[in-house]
Specification:
This protein is an alpha+beta fold. It has eleven helices and seven strands. It has two domains: about 5-80, no CATH class; about 85-225, GTP cyclohydrolase I, C-terminal domain/NADPH-dependent 7-cyano-7-deazaguanine reductase, N-terminal domain (GTP Cyclohydrolase I, domain 2, 2-Layer Sandwich).
């Protein structure tokens, strides 16, 4: 039953209205949903979830589902928190004058996002690099920028570009590079159902775009196995000699 009055169309309308409420977007039709206060917005999402449960054949009043609309609405506050974040508050003035003109790489930044096409999760790691101009940014701010753009309804291509362009706008560096690797539940749980397929996107700006050498150095950092940049005990002691026992314990505690 897929006619215009069928359950599939009803669910589509519910999900469409829910996205409008969550995003605060202007709907394509006359509505005030995009201007609801936070409490009203949460109530609207809860009602939409109840409608979805009903239209997929469930009983929203049974014990296991009674509080599901509330839980879903509450979870959206966290999953889609990026809409409430702005660059100024994220950076919070953490820009510093440092005489340094070599590459800075922050790699293996875990992220979790929501595909805007199916509202299913995608997640993975982001790798961000820049070569400073006059300023550097606090270390924690790069992951926070990734988080700000990830915690939205997204497509990976746009998220990658947004991260790179914001870092460029904030720092005016010599160049910015971003690589994002993501696993998408919309192609794992449904559709093509390929569990191990990953999507890789990149954005290169400034010297990373112009210089093959600079870009390749960044990509070497990205593909370097985790921990391989930290020196190992066997690098310190050549020719079969053994380190003192106390140094072995110290190194294991520090690096392994």
């Amino acid at each position: 039953m897929d006619d215009k009055n069928g359950p599939n169309k009803t669910i589509e309308k519910i999900i469409s209205d829910t996205r409008i409420v969550m995003l605060g977007e202007e709907p394509a039709r006359d509505s005030d949903n995009g201007h609801l206060e936070p409490g009203e917005r949460k109530a609207a999402i809860e009602e939409a979830v109840r409608s979805i449960l009903t239209h997929v054949g469930e009983d929203p009043e049974r014990e296991g589902l009674k509080r599901t609309p509330h839980r879903v609405a509450k979870s959206y506050d966290e999953l889609l928190a990026g809409y409430e974040m702005d660059p100024e508050s994220v950076v919070n003035g953490a820009l510093f004058d440092v005489e340094y003109d070599e590459m800075i790489v922050v790699k293996d930044i875990e992220f979790f996002s929501m595909c805007e096409h199916h509202m299913l999760p995608f997640f993975g790691k982001a790798h961000v690099a820049y070569i400073p101009g006059e300023k550097v940014i606090g270390l924690s701010k790069i992951p926070r920028i990734v988080e700000m753009f990830a915690r939205r309804l997204q497509v990976q291509e746009r998220m990658t570009t947004q991260i790179a362009e914001l870092v460029e706008d904030i720092l005016n560096p010599q160049g910015v590079a971003v690589v994002v690797e993501g696993s998408h539940m919309c192609s794992v749980m449904r559709g093509v159902k390929k569990e191990h397929a990953r999507m890789v996107t990149s954005k290169m700006l400034g010297c990373f775009r112009k210089s093959d050498k600079t870009r390749n150095e960044f990509l070497q950092h990205v593909h370097q196995p985790q921990g391989s940049s930290i020196f190992k005990l066997h690098d310190l002691f050549q020719g079969g000699s053994r380190p003192p026992w106390y140094l072995t314990l110290l190194m294991r505690w520090l690096f392994f």
